[in-house]
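Why do we care about 3D structure at all? Because function follows from shape, and shape follows, mostly, from sequence. That is the central idea of this module. The next example makes it concrete: a single protein chain, its amino acid sequence, and then its structure expressed as tokens.
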Amino acid sequence: MLFQDSDCTKLGEFKEFPLNFEGILQLQVIAQNVLAVLAAKGLFIVNLLSNACERLEFDDVQRIQCLSAESLMLVQGHRDVWMYDFNNQSIALHKQFAQEIRTCAWGKGELVIVLGDCVILFDSNGDMLFSRSFPVINDVVDVHKLDDKLIVTSRHQLQVFSNVLESIEVSCEMSNPVTGTVFCENDGVFQLVLKAEFSDFLFTISNEDNILSHRRIFSPTVGTTGISSIEDVILLVSDTVLCTVDELFNIDMKFLHANDEKRIVSCAVMSDIFIIGFSDGSLFICDHKFVKEQE
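And the structure:
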């Protein structure tokens, strides 16, 4: 068993996927039974039913992002951003910049790029909608796009802006400096983990019916490496912990065996399976009956 004190009637049986991806960095679901794997040797599209695997021709990829309502995947490099249409297996948009991209986000047909202290917004055709200097951007760790809102995470706070950065709609101060983020999106609801020095914070942010709401709790994981969600259950992983949190904040945690040198680096969830990626390049898959039992 991968996990100590594992209840197989609840977790299902973990099975190792037959392919190995050296240096796994990130997992993203792009369609049912189709997984994007960002690894040290490139970006791969994997069919979990047929075990077919294709390496996409992108170089120097830093991270990827998929949204549940769109058939596009954002691919961020050091100076390039691509929007890959995985239905048509083609590049829908490519933007190249002279300076290094600090971070970027995609949502509602718009692309946000942070270069230096400047925020640039492009439409789906690649035409620039606006460019604006944003002095405090030097402190920014990451940005995310939620409908017509821009979520800006800096070292000491999380803020939600209107798209043109004219008004702050949410502002949350952070007691410990933020070092990074991991996030997932499901049906327009963002689950965003802010990783801090001593504790991680989990934010749930939604903009349902144009009403912006947010909720913050201490994350049960520290040094969170991955997050995914399905229905009302959030799945979190850190180096040695797999954790679920339901809508009533019931927490279920599983720990890797202490003598196992594997470390969990990312996770993904589909309608009937849960995938975890390990530092040795392996993928393990189980059914998530445990999620349904917590509803």
